[in-house]
Automatic annotation (TrEMBL):
Identification of the protein by name: Glycine cleavage system protein R
PANTHER family, A to Z: UPF0237 PROTEIN MJ1558
Pfam family, one: ACT_6
InterPro entries reported for this sequence: ACT-like_dom_sf (IPR045865), ACT_dom (IPR002912), GcvR (IPR016867), UPF0237/GcvR_regulator (IPR050990)
Domain ACT: 89-168
Amino acid sequence: MTTLVLTVVGGDRAGIVASVADVVAAHGGNWENSQLAELAGAFAGIVEVSVPAERAEALRTALADLDGLHTVAMPAGSDAASPSHRQLVLRVLGNDHPGIVRELSSALSAHGVSIDRMTTQTRDAAMAGGRLFEATVVASAPGDVDVAAVADEIERLAAEIQVDVTVD
């Protein structure tokens, strides 16, 4: 079996997941893992599938022909969450303003920390007015990275960009 990672993007509509799943199944594939979301009328997802090696190219071609979707299939990379990696979870909350994601992701990258998953949202602040920014970041740090130093850097940065960050 060959493992492929699919990225799927298109306008949101009923049946998108079913159409992708039908194509995967028609080529003898198995839907393994996925992260799918609708946001502001658009649908996007990433899906890990396994398929018999001799059918992988036909699956790629069939996925490219799905109506109204841009779908790309590529071979799966290595699993970043190997035993030599440590997981970090950051929870961010603060007044929304440009640059929060850029600053936090740059600080993590500078330490060799890779973001595995990130969810963000903005919402109205209940009493104070304005918008709040919230994020949860799950990241992998190589075994040789000083996690305490990363946490210290993130805490220093949080004060600078005026958000609250907890690092677990």
